[in-house]
């Protein structure tokens, strides 16, 4: 049976699900509030260079992603950054480029913010700031707090334990240096850092930038403590902590990125969730396979969730 399917959120899970559903012959439309697909597959152009400021790299454990990555390597979309002790893959032109390559050919409504989701005579009605859209089935891939806001009264159809999952924020400082600024042997330091620092990445050493752009990721506790403070003060403190690694190397420019829902503090041990009495499905990196022992949200969990929910929606 042919279906008209809507997907809220054009991050990795949404894109992967859309590709699968289109391949099965369904009409699929992604709705994305941002100006680009990708979600946390995010890359920012700064001057002549670029910096990833969401997902830094991804790893592969399961067969499903392994097969996809083999194809992406063949297409020269991704490559191994370093392997210690297992391969860390990066997108050759920045993580957002990979999202765009995967979304190529899909119908995506960008810069469109969903306001409400409701049911009307068995049809899912999605009201946005641009239009009212009707679907046979709907997939929502946004972070769960945002998802439950959209669902409003329909949230009562979701298990209470899922509604109680919480997220931690992350700050990322982006710093453009005037000259070479070596960050470790491979362009990453994620151990023995000053309190608050999670990891520091040099995007030139990583291979995606022609200029010296450094991404500085702050840990959950620090980001939570600083979240309501002025952006200027936050960026200054991140820079101060960065200098414990880079010393007095001159910085030309600095920017700040806030991820409010960067990392779920717990996960759901099923790869997707269906509302009890509505053709509405939830997916994303927080939805893990039951046998996934990592207990962490990551690129691969988002990818597999997209595959699994697509299979469920078309059945």
Describe this protein's structure:
With 315 residues, the chain is of the alpha+beta class. Helix content is 28%, strand content 31%. It has two domains: 4-42 and 97-165 and 266-314, FAD/NAD(P)-binding domain (3-Layer(bba) Sandwich), CATH 3.50.50; 167-263, Polyamine Oxidase, Chain A, domain 2, CATH 3.90.660. The protein contains nine helices and 18 strands. It is globular and about 65 Å long. The model has no long low-confidence stretch (mean pLDDT 97).
Helix/strand layout:
Blueprint lengths: L3 E5 L3 H12 L3 E5 L11 E4 L2 E4 L10 H12 L3 E6 L3 E5 L3 H9 L3 E3 L4 E7 L2 E6 L3 E4 L1 E4 L3 H8 L8 H4 L3 E11 L10 E2 L7 E6 H4 L6 E6 L1 H7 L4 H16 L4 E14 L8 E2 L5 E3 L16 H16 L1
Parallel strand pairs: 1-2, 1-11, 2-7, 11-18
Antiparallel strand pairs: 3-4, 5-6, 8-9, 9-10, 12-15, 12-16, 13-14, 14-15, 17-18
């Amino acid at each position: 049976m042919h279906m008209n399917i809507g997907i809220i959120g054009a991050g990795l899970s949404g894109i992967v699900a859309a590709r699968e559903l289109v391949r099965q012959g369904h009409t699929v439309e992604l709705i994305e509030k941002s100006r680009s697909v990708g979600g946390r597959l995010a890359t920012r152009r700064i001057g002549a260079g670029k910096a990833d400021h969401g997902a830094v790299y991804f790893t592969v454990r399961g067969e499903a992603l392994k097969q996809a990555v083999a194809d992406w390597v063949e297409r020269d979309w991704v490559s191994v950054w370093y392997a210690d002790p297992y391969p860390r893959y990066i997108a050759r032109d920045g993580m957002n480029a990979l999202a765009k390559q995967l979304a190529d050919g899909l119908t995506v409504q960008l810069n469109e913010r969903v306001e409400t989701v409701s049911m009307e005579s068995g049809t899912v009605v999605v009201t946005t700031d641009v239009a009212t859209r009707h679907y046979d089935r709907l997939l929502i891939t946004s972070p769960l707090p945002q998802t439950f806001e959209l669902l409003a009264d329909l949230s009562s159809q979701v298990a209470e334990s899922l509604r109680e999952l919480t997220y931690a924020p992350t700050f990322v400082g982006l710093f453009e240096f005037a000259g070479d600024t070596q960050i470790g042997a491979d362009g990453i330091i994620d151990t023995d850092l000053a309190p608050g620092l999670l990891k520091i990445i040099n995007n030139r050493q990583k291979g995606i930038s022609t200029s010296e752009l450094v991404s500085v990721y702050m840990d959950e506790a620090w980001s939570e403590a600083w979240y309501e403070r002025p952006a200027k003060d936050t960026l200054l403190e991140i820079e101060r902590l960065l200098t414990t690694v880079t010393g007095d190397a001159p910085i030309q420019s600095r920017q700040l990125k806030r991820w409010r829902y960067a990392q779920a503090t717990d996960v759901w041990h099923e790869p997707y969730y269906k509302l009890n009495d509505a053709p509405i499905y939830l997916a994303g990196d927080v939805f893990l396979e039951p046998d996934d022992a990592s207990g962490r949200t990551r690129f691969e969990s988002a990818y597999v969730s997209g595959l699994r929910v697509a299979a469920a929606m078309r059945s």
